[in-house]
Amino acid sequence: MAAAATRTLPELGPVVMAAAGTRTLPELGPVVMAANAAMYDTECSDFFSDCVPPPHAESSAKAMAEFAVRHAAQGRRVVLVTSGGTKVPLESRTVRFLDNFSSGWRGAVSVEYFLGLGYAVVFLHRHRSLYPFSRRYAGLNMLDALTAVLDKKTTCWRVEADQAMLPDIVAVLQRYQAVREADLLFPVEFSTLSDYLYLLRAAAQALNSIGREIK
């Protein structure tokens, strides 16, 4: 194991062969898995030590852990949903980058589904990807659906929504407000691949702290 931890995949062959000795093929499974796990742990450590964490990594990790513990204590299950693509800068002073495009539609719908089942949701999503509930109106210029109306009695302006342009807006808004009031949704944004991996690890650790079973 100590030898495997610092070696690349091609170099692991002799390690596994040496460990094999007189063992049969079925007995080699744990040896190979242990060697792979050690190599994986080393690569992960190297990655996180080489990358700069997002500015809000520490505060987000703490907040996600508190969110998970609070809802678990109330007997509510907590789920993590990730959504949207990632980008990788090609230069240190980023002008060009590779972008894995994803609208985030499936993630936003999944959040609504889990909320409907009574879960609390940690929503790790790409900046400006589709958001739960509002994703229904993503293709609409919201200003086209709103009208400023002057109340002659109070001389105050109010905003009215054209419900023909915003189908089911009352029900959607009521559901969203209920989720907010109950604090059932915790959104966390990312942009780059390294941001995503840092925050994904933090989210996994936050949920791991509450265990698999809710009592």
TrEMBL record:
InterPro entries: CoaB-like_sf (IPR035929). This is DNA/pantothenate metabolism flavoprotein C-terminal domain-containing protein. It comes from Chiloscyllium punctatum (Brownbanded bambooshark).
